[in-house]
Specification:
The structure is a homodimer. Chain A is of the alpha/beta class. Chain A folds into three domains: about 5-100, Winged helix-like DNA-binding domain superfamily/Winged helix DNA-binding domain (Arc Repressor Mutant, subunit A, Orthogonal Bundle), CATH 1.10.10; about 125-135 and about 385-495, Aspartate Aminotransferase, domain 1, CATH 3.90.1150.10; about 140-380, Type I PLP-dependent aspartate aminotransferase-like (Major domain) (Aspartate Aminotransferase, domain 2, 3-Layer(aba) Sandwich), CATH 3.40.640.10. Chain A has 15 helices and 16 strands. A seven-stranded mixed sheet of chain A has the order 4-12-11-10-9-5-6, with helices on both faces. In chain A, strands 13-14-16 form a three-stranded antiparallel sheet, with helices on one face. In chain A, β7 and β8 form a beta hairpin. In chain A, α13 (about 380-410) runs parallel beside α15 (about 470-495). Mean pLDDT of chain A is about 90; it is low at about 90-100. Chains A and B meet through α2, α4, α5, α7 and α8 of A and α2, α4, α5, α7 and α8 of B. Chains A, B: In the C-terminal section; belongs to the class-I pyridoxal-phosphate-dependent aminotransferase family.
Chain lengths: ~500, ~500
């Protein structure tokens, strides 16, 4: 007889009903062939006695197995494992515990060259970022209150099902008004696709604009995630120089004269990573070139809200009379990355196409969160939040730049940025960021992946250093750790 | 002199400061060339008088324009539009209002063949769906309460920034335990990628498995969104028959013998759309074939929680000893589509690759929502919710099937489904769904896109009709409208 008693295990403390525990164990035994097909099972009464359970449990188990097709009950003969039931071929499995199975995959698939990694953060370490907002200033509770209020509404039911891939209508209307007012656009909700954030906007644009070997132009220094997105799409990424006025439009025109480009990716309002603003002249040139050579401008306006020396500069999209601009933004920098609400703005037909692709990847947005932001924007709360953090970040910029100049002048050079949350910091050529990164760890300072700032490998020896996340005390501490690091390196060099 | 007074407009009720209103209007005028480059601007005092504003406003405006590069101030000479400033070429723009610009796009892009459309719902209409939960039973308020509680925690700050593309660790741990307990898996968090829902899981699997001309096998009838995802990936979609035991594994083996397939997509627990369960024998066959021919099984277990006649059937993934299964699920059916939380489960390396691609498309998940679901699952609330709706839906299934048989037997045939939220309803061949769809509108009944159930064009004349969203009164009403529709059609036929 099959050793039922040693093969079947009962856990009376499990939430799973006994009959189901036995059912699933039987299935495993039958699947593996441990109880071979054709086997006649022991009677329910006997098994119940063996296992010391109520007979009803065994009856329920057998019934379940019959229902699921693992057993067949033949009247007057008994209960059998069906004759033709194959068993699961698993030479390395039989007799072992499931948890022993290796993690070797059983099929082939395509690997990307992507190696993004998120660092696990330790409490007393400091982490350099490329310009992220301070979570302590995020109005998380206010937003959660709105979220809850919305969720309690009677009519919320209609927002709970499958909805448009373009996003919640109310947010699209509110956003159209808000962007028209603040950024000089002249759009309606039809021009808006609500995304999960800027990255989705960049990715969708790449999907629609670029196939293998299509050309996209970016700055010689550029936002690494955009580069990576275009390269993943197998596009040809051509680079033009970036100076204190932003990307070089003369170099761009030279490219356009000899080949058809599909698009230009630009962070006009504070070039990423160098933080410069695209000049008025170049703005006009870029729009004229887009018209003349029929290419798209992907304008990623991640930094619009943070301009300390003067009023916000209207985006290229505000004067996009020929529909060349795909305008991308999000609340990730303004509020916090955790709130996955962004937008892609373009002509209606393009927006519709983008929303089709979005539907394939991510069926729809989060209507509750979108409604939350519709209220947050419409009530003026977003504006109030921006005004509040604007002042804080401006002071932090000033302090950070002062401290850099006072304490670290011999090691780094930089220009005080007019806006944004980061400084473009060039390291004295005597040193490398690899050395600095390694040496900094002694002082619990993590620089992170510095190579992302030099995708074109020009050895500019600069990185983007975010200051917005650090308060006054932390900025002092950061500078202290940096200074200790640099002194170590200078000493090493001296005695080398 | 340039007609400043008629060209510049001041809106004292706008939230935008006066100086900024003027700044932005000047920028437009300069960009267009309406104020040509080289022009000397009127003095601040004179302009202030002309526009009846304080002189400080004009000074601020000019300063802003100088700062942004639209004007240059030459000491002792005055303020000029820079000589070399190009103007924006916009023949159809000049002199018109911005809102007049056409919506014709200024660049070329690739169009997909996707035509997903969300119907705008009217209040007194009834809409047939393919099996969606009833939003009135969704614990939206409970979830929102948890969301708010989480958002008020002191340590929430660390969840607000950029986090892992694989999803929140706490949810991954909770989910690993939950799925091990409920579905007989034996996984840890490393095997889990948190997605936005099943669609993202299907799409990511397609990205990793399929390039142009790679073969994926699906049922002759299949979930249309999966088909569309594979076709969009340019894969070759081969079909095998589906009978009352699910997909035909003999036909699958025949394909495997002659060509290398990359994967099989299967909704083992209630085939979509026909609602049948993959039989025990075929489950084993499918796993054995996957091992023998080294292909992936994409197991989309959308319907796991809804099995009325017997205990839940463990997924293929519960016996995936050779790592052939990519297991996909979400809370969309169980809780509501608005909650964008799903998962993809596979070997670690595959999950890591999938999370890289996910990062390109959608930088990260929503940590607050993910934490909310971690608590909802861990506290047992999810299980309690499932038990509650399970009973309701079972009753609705019984009622719907009884009514169909009593009232509409001559028009439709069906088998009562063992689980799920929909019935596979075959229309008498005398009629077509196109006729029914058109005729039903008279009774404010919208059938929707019936062609999605027959992607292979086999003319099975059946659609999937969801019952779970309708309560008792609504089910009676639905049957009434269907009957009126069918009577109309029968009469038409009689007198034709």
């Amino acid at each position: 007889m099959f050793p039922y008693k040693t093969s079947l295990h009962i856990n009376r403390r499990s939430k799973e009903p006994l009959f189901l525990q036995l059912t699933n164990q039987f299935i495993h035994l039958i699947k593996e062939g441990t109880i071979p097909s054709g086997t006649k099972l022991i009677g329910t009464r006997s098994l119940a006695e063996l296992l010391q359970v109520h007979r009803k449990t065994i009856v329920a188990c057998y019934e379940e197995l019959v229902m699921q097709g693992w057993l067949e009950a033949i009247p007057k003969k008994g209960t059998f494992v069906p004759k033709d039931l194959p068993f699961l071929k698993s030479e390395d499995y039989r007799g072992n515990e499931i948890s022993n199975h290796t993690d070797q995959i059983g099929f082939s698939y395509y690997k990307s060259n992507l190696h993004h990694r998120t660092i696990e953060k330790k409490d007393d370490w400091m982490y350099i970022n490329d310009g992220v907002s301070d979570g302590r200033l995020t109005p998380t509770e206010d937003l959660a209150k709105i979220y809850r209020r919305i969720s309690s509404r009677k009519n919320i039911t209609k927002h709970l099902g499958y909805i448009s891939t373009q996003g919640n209508d109310q947010l699209r209307n509110v956003l159209a008004n808000y962007l028209n007012e603040t950024r000089g656009l002249s759009i309606t909700k039809e021009h808006i696709l609500i995304t999960r954030g800027s990255q989705m906007g960049i990715w969708l644009s790449a999907q629609l604009l670029l196939k293998e070997e299509d050309i996209i132009v970016v700055g010689e220094t550029n936002y690494a995630s955009a580069d990576i997105t275009f390269l993943h799409q197998k596009a040809k990424v051509l680079r033009v120089p970036v100076d204190e006025n932003g990307i070089d439009t003369v170099a761009l025109e030279n490219i356009c004269e000899s080949q058809q480009i599909k698009g230009v990716y630009v962070t006009s309002h504070h070039h990423h990573p160098t933080t410069v603003t695209l000049s008025a002249e170049r703005r006009i040139c870029l729009l004229n070139l887009a018209k003349k050579y029929s290419f798209a401008i992907i304008e990623d306006d991640y930094d619009y809200d943070f301009n300390y020396n003067h009023a916000p500069i209207l985006p290229l999209a505000s004067h996009d009379v020929h529909n060349n601009v795909i305008y991308i933004g999000s609340v990730c920098k303004t509020v916090a990355p955790v709130f996955r609400v962004g937008y892609l703005i373009a002509n209606k037909e393009f927006v519709n196409e983008a929303s089709q692709i979005r539907g394939l990847v991510d069926r729809q947005g989060d209507a509750l969160l979108e409604l939350t932001f519709a209220e947050f924007i419409e009530s003026g709360d977003l504006d109030r939040h921006i005004r509040k953090v604007h002042k804080v970040y401006e002071k932090r910029r000033d302090l950070f730049c002062d401290l850099l100049r006072e304490e670290l002048n011999e090691y780094f050079s930089f220009k005080k940025p007019k806006g944004g949350m980061a400084v473009w910091l060039t390291l004295n050529k005597k040193y490398t960021w690899l050395e600095v990164t390694r040496a900094a760890r002694k002082y619990k300072l993590e620089i992170g992946n510095f190579s992302r700032y030099d995708m074109a490998k020009t050895n500019h020896n600069a990185i983007r250093m975010g200051f917005a996340r650090f308060n006054v005390a932390e900025l002092h501490e950061l500078i202290k750790r940096m200074k200790l690091t640099m002194i170590d390196l200078a000493n090493l060099e001296k005695f080398a």
